[in-house]
């Protein structure tokens, strides 16, 4: 196995994930098979219990792993299906070591960070890198490892030490270290400053790792003399100083790397020159340029719990982007804090209330994404009602589907007490209920998680037509509550149709509303499997409906002309 390790210095939030996945893209374009590992040095076992409003969204994998959002980047950029073990955390490593200690596997030895934790890290990396994740058999050629955090953080020390040892045992031809750093411009003089990078490289070298490459983030392209300085002071050859300056969209990053011949230098470092071909990035060039030149946009109202940190809904945003590009449109996402739509807000914050409603009314479609807890639920119900009554295309994801069910029960069935037991444990009409297999005491890894099959009940539904599959849909789940099977009969009398159910027939997965241009709710999260160039079917449906093209699209596919 050949390893490409990507570390970060100076500050966090440099786009290390995008850099690492772009390196993967370039290597893949050279004909190599690539896998990836993300190391998160925090103590959480996984990202499942972390707040998306602090840490960004929780990404869900096929196997039900709740992982860091960077794994989403890898899946999308490299078109992979990763496993939960591709995300290593301090929590997971300690858990495995402590379990072995309790079993007595260490035979009376004192269990220590070095060598036991570091050995566990090395073993984990070696075994996970061998798992095929690209649909082919056998291990990949290259494993890109991204070390989260910045070099020098106390919690990443055991990982740095383990990676140093891994480098030593893998040998120089099998290891390539790329350090992502920041070159800021300060003051009126506007000079590109290399000192922060020098310091962080020095820190890395003090820990026994010398970077082979620098990937410098900067606003403008690096000047020749900045590069020379970096080369001289950081002990990195000039040809290995890569520059990722700001670009109009992230799909330019692999192109930027190729332009700087990063692939040649990395292949040389990994002694892979003879097996690789020149990188074919035609698809990326087309996508990056097409996006830059798009002029028309479509307004999408995103009605969520909080809207401060857009990373909280990262995969939804990406899925909208993929769908819009397929329709030659730029997404214009209008963020609406659901609570601003509520009557209460009209009294407390009238300006925010009227602005929220104006934004909603000016949008071409409405999306209510997944979420937990009761904040903003009333506002989401109002948004779903507005979309239903005004025939505005609506996509409700997970919580968004449950919202539709509550809304229909209250407005159409007249059940005033309809609610989810998540928000009101003693709701007189519990239309969304806790799933029997859930745990009430443990939050982590206790939901219905990962890829599950949904059986379509009829081929004559918009979902079947968009997925081009009359029988089933495989998508990823992450929920604790479900539609109460006892109220399905009543709900179906209102015009809602549960067109997708799980294999038992008891669990509602997809709802559609008749006599509406596009009103779909899904218990799963279609956003996780959306890819650039392969947009998620339901997101595509939403955008097509928002722009009046859905019918034509469905017809042309039925005739087999596209
Ligand atoms: N809170 C809801 C549930 O647990 C919805 C979850 C979600 O939207 N991911 O079922």
UniProtKB/TrEMBL annotation:
Source taxon at top rank: Eukaryota
Catalytic reaction list: UTP + L-glutamine + ATP + H2O = CTP + L-glutamate + ADP + phosphate + 2 H(+)
GO MF annotation terms: ATP binding; CTP synthase activity; identical protein binding
Coiled coil: none
Pfam families, alphabetized: CTP_synth_N, GATase
Domain spans labelled CTP synthase N-terminal: 2-272
Keywords for this protein: ATP-binding, Glutamine amidotransferase, Ligase, Nucleotide-binding, Pyrimidine biosynthesis
Keyword Ligase recorded: yes
EC number: 6.3.4.2
Pathway assignment: Pyrimidine metabolism; CTP biosynthesis via de novo pathway; CTP from UDP: step 2/2
Biological processes, Gene Ontology terms: 'de novo' CTP biosynthetic process; pyrimidine nucleobase biosynthetic process
Signal sequence coordinates: none
Function: Catalyzes the ATP-dependent amination of UTP to CTP with either L-glutamine or ammonia as the source of nitrogen.
Designated name of the protein: CTP synthase
């Amino acid at each position: 196995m050949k390893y490409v390790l990507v570390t970060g210095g100076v500050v966090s939030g440099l786009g290390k994930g995008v850099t690492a996945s772009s390196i993967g893209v370039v290597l893949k374009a050279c004909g190599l098979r690539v896998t990836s590992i993300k190391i998160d040095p925090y103590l959480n076992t996984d990202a499942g219990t972390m707040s998306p409003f602090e840490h960004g969204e929780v990404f869900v994998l096929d196997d039900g792993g709740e992982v860091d959002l960077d794994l989403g980047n890898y899946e999308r950029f490299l078109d992979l299906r990763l496993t939960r073990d591709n995300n290593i955390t301090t929590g997971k490593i300690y858990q495995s070591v402590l379990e072995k200690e309790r079993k007595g596997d260490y035979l009376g030895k004192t269990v220590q960070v070095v060598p036991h934790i570091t050995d566990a890290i090395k073993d984990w990396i070696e075994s996970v890198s061998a798992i095929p994740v690209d649909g082919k058999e056998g291990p990949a050629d290259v494993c890109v490892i991204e070390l989260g955090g910045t070099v020098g953080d106390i919690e990443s020390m055991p990982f740095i030490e383990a990676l140093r040892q891994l480098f030593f045992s893998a040998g120089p031809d099998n290891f390539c270290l790329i350090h992502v750093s920041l070159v800021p411009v300060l003051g009126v003089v506007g000079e590109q400053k290399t000192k922060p990078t020098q310091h962080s490289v020095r820190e890395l070298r003090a820990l026994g790792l010398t970077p082979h490459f620098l990937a410098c983030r900067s606003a403008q392209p690096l000047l020749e003399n900045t590069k020379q300085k970096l080369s001289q002071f950081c002990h990195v050859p000039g040809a290995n100083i890569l520059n990722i300056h700001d670009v109009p969209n992230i799909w330019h990053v692999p192109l930027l790397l190729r332009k700087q011949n990063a692939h040649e230098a990395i292949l040389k470092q990994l002694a892979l020159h003879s097996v690789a071909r020149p990188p074919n990035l035609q698809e990326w060039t087309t996508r990056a340029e097409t996006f830059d030149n798009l002029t028309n946009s479509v307004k999408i109202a995103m009605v969520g719990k909080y809207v401060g940190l857009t990373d909280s809904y990262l995969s939804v945003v990406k899925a909208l982007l993929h769908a819009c590009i397929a329709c030659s449109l730029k997404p214009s996402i209008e963020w609406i804090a659901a609570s601003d739509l509520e009557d209460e807000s009209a009294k407390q914050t009238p300006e925010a209330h009227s602005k929220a409603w104006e934004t909603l009314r000016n949008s071409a479609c409405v999306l209510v994404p997944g979420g937990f807890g009761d904040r903003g639920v009333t506002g989401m119900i109002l948004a779903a009602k507005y979309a239903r009554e005004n025939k505005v295309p609506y996509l409700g994801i997970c919580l968004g589907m449950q919202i539709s069910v509550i809304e229909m029960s209250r407005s159409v069935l007249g059940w005033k007490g309809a609610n989810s037991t998540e928000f009101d444990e003693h709701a007189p009409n519990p239309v969304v209920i806790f799933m029997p297999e859930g745990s009430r005491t443990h939050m982590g890894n206790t939901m219905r998680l990962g890829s599950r099959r949904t059986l379509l009940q009829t081929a004559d539904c918009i979902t079947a037509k968009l997925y081009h599959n009359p029988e089933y849909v495989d998508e990823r789940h992450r929920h604790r509550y479900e539609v109460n099977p006892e109220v399905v009969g009543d709900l179906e009398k209102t015009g809602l149709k549960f067109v997708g159910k799980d294999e038992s027939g008891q669990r509602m997965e997809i709802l559609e509303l008749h006599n509406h241009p596009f009103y779909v709710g899904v218990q799963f999260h279609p956003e996780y499997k959306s890819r650039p160039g392969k947009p998620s079917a339901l997101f595509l449906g939403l955008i097509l409906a928002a722009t009046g093209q859905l019918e034509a699209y469905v017809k042309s596919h039925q005739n087999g002309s596209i």
